[in-house]
Write a structure and sequence with these properties.
mainly beta, five-stranded antiparallel beta sheet, 12 strands, seven-stranded antiparallel beta sheet, 1 helix, 7% helix, binds calcium ion
Amino acid sequence: MKRSVKVGMLTLSALTGFFVFTGLSGVKVLPKEAPVELLTNPGFESPALTPLTQGSIHPVGWQTFTSGTTELMTLSVGTARSGNQAVKFVSHGVLNFFQGMFQTLPVTPGDTYQFGVYVKGDPAKPLKGSVTGQLSIEWHDANDNEVGRLWSTPWGASLPATEWTRFEVAGAAPPNSATAHYVIVEKGEGQPVSGCVFFVDDASVVKMSEE
Ligand SMILES: [Ca+2]
């Protein structure tokens, strides 16, 4: 009996933690049932690395892009928040370089979507200079033209290397949107330093409901 009461209280506090304030649009809350994860391979566990493939392949389900520099984004087994693997981003010392990965998913106009990831620095190779990471949601219409973009708070030199920090961005799909690109990007900007590292794990996209 005591045990079930305890579990109930835990559940309540966990739900309370899901409330977010969205400014003028009021309070939104995740569905009461466990929210459905919309991403493929959100924990970067696929494909499972072997000693031979380590560092040389991309996570299943994610598309990558760069500003023209060599792609320095790899699956990594050294540091993971869940499972065995995370994605490791390594910076270039190239002015205004960028590199990233994304998934494209259908959206319903008016519905609110939340995109989040956990990020951690590398104590031996912390982010320096103007190198940052950031999340975005890019809304596209049926012809695949971008019709809007939302950004998360960026992470940079102050990113903790001793714990995982969650970053997220959420918003309502605009009236003419058909899909969203959920993007994780690293940017060099004006004073980039090469060889800086951050890890990303446990990405998530969920649809939120209004109460
Ligand atoms: Ca993982």
